[in-house]
Amino acid sequence: MFGLGIxxxxxxxxxFLAMVGIGFWAMSRIKNQxxxxxxxxxxxxxxxxxxxxGQATSSDTGPSVATTTYHxxxxxxWSALMMVFAxxxxxxxxxxxxxxxVMTLGDFFTKxxxxxxxxxxxxxxxxxxxxxxxxxxxxxxxxxxxALTPKAESELTVxxxxxxxxxxxxxxxxxxxxxSLSVAESTRLENLRQEAPRQVFSHMNKHIxxxxxxxxxxxxxxxxxxEAALISDLIQGVFILLLSVMxxxxxxxxxxxxxxxxGLMGAFEALHEQKSMSFFQILxxxxxxxxxxxxxxxxxxxxxxxxxxxxxxxxTPSSSKDEYSARFGMTFGIYLKRLVTVLWGxxxxxxxxxxxxxxxxxxxxxGYASRELLGPLNMGLIGLMIAALMAALMSTADMMxxxxxxxxxxxxxxxxxxxxxxxxxxxxxxxxxxxxxxGAAVLTLASDSVLGLLKLWWEFGTVFAAxxxxxxxxxxxxxKAVWAQMxxxxxxxxxxxxxSPLVPGLKTNAYLLKQTESRSIEQVYPRATQEDVDRQxxxxxxxxxxxxxxxxxxxxxVIKLNEPWSKSYLMPRKSVxxxxxxxxxxxxEGTEVAQGKGxxxxxxxxxxxxxxxxxANPYALxxxxxxxxxxxxxxxxxxIVSLMTRRSKEEExxxxxxxxxxxxxxxxxxxxxxxxxxxxxxxxxxxDDHKLFGPNSHWTFSKWNKVDAIGFGINVLALLAIIGFLYxxxxxxx
Length: 734
Known about the structure:
Blueprint: H1 6-27, H2 33-38, H3 45-56, H4 61-72, H5 74-79, H6 90-100, H7 105-112, H8 116-148, H9 158-174, H10 183-195, H11 206-245, H12 247-259, H13 263-274, H14 293-307, H15 311-318, H16 323-355, H17 365-374, H18 381-416, H19 422-446, H20 450-460, H21 462-473, H22 479-499, E1 519-525, H23 530-545, E2 565-571, E3 582-586, E4 592-596, H24 602-609, H25 619-644, H26 649-662, H27 670-682, H28 706-731
């Protein structure tokens, strides 16, 4: 069935039954909303580590590392680690979540700004965002599982065979030196890149797969709430770790069988002998010129700011039994993900060496490698891989479902229908949770365009992030300023960029079609590998087949194995203002019309109109400017409007009480903790000694204690260790 053996199907079925069993076991422990949405706040360090690890790791993470490695070599692994620089600061933000002592992050906005409207607006928009994010995991898992169940060549339709031929043509053109391509070939290459023809076709019914996962996730998460989700995350974390390493020994054996050598080191040596040296450039690779140090720094900073405001980030630390479990679980759960990312990179590098020439869609690389390496063994390992992928998706899906359900139930439904029983709110939360997963499934099956919406998610938090950070750190932040900042951020960051393309003539406006300048970069390599020699020989052969009038000014140079050589890379021109670039559409009469694609970067248009010629900048610099504007402008707006508006007496009390909660450490005994918090809220001056800038300051930065300082130092060392491990692994065998 679906190209899977009986053993594979049994492995998948047993896994599903285990997850459902956990859900119904946890259901008996649910007595109220706190039990359902926060697991009764009784989760320790181990559960916290794997819950954060599972939440940060979806079914798209391993395959996406393979995709970026396929495109950019070792630099692709680095691109998946860009957020690592934000991780040490989670040592502090995770404590905030636990000290808030609220059910949802929407509750924080409601209490801090004395406004149910702000809490409701946050909850509604975040629930939609979580639904969209969940759909990405579905899409990625579909692609990988479909690659595990491919059609045989004899089963391809006529149209699929034609598309397959175009995929091979694209691969051939991309392997050639840019300087040797004729004008016609360059045009053909650009057209094929836009089409992205498939090379692998599957007979897996994606509807059956998606709805199967929906049913399983709904059964155990709706039944058992957050506790079932977190315990299943512990089990699923083990599956994800298996996924991370299970392909490496099989790939190494196959590499050694093809190229000679023994053991893991032999496979790494073959990798370095066969792949171009550019493949191992972590920084400075021509294929990854957009990942400059300043762009990575900007993305890392924005990630820290926005991730803190995401409701799914709040849930796991808030469910911990104490604040040390919250901070330990969050930081080291995320570091475990970073470590596993490097292992995924090793698998991806091996898979590129073995299978890259067999496909044009890099999203299928992980699944294709799994089938080729594990399938012949007939030991149920394909089933284990599918179970691991589903585990990765479900560990994210259950958290998204519970988080969105809590926001809608507690911050939208309860204010409209107060004074209901706890049993009533839990039942409503279960129904809403199911609808969230159903919505994500419908988005997945409707169109792959959801992937485009993912780009919005990374910056989605900018609407609320400033209000969260300033609400915690600056007592003078006003609710009027929050409304102004949220409204203007939504308009300029999302509404105008999304609606502008609907204005007639705007997508074809000549000014808005401005592109960065094309640059040719020459890289010198001290040693030519076999891959370099083969590619250059193919480029020379293709050049010699061209008619004289189609040839470029000079033929490609002949290179020799293990000798120095150089290669020119033509950096593509990229749109300055349109997020998805510029496409050329051919009209019925044969006329070609260029038009912008995607969203319009309104703020970059404003910057360019002010006299800064953004077309002269590298694309990475323009992206850095855009990211920094979206990160800092909300803070500037919030501060300016707060200074221009006055707080009501209720807002002042709410700000003082919020500061009192954030500056009061969590006690192990719940009753004692509640009494201490009530005492500090009634007299906020009792926590003034904890303020960094003195008792009279409106800024509520907390003084560091020994746990803060030592923990942060260990986190920085862990960060350096992850980066060092990446360089060590990439350099093995070189």
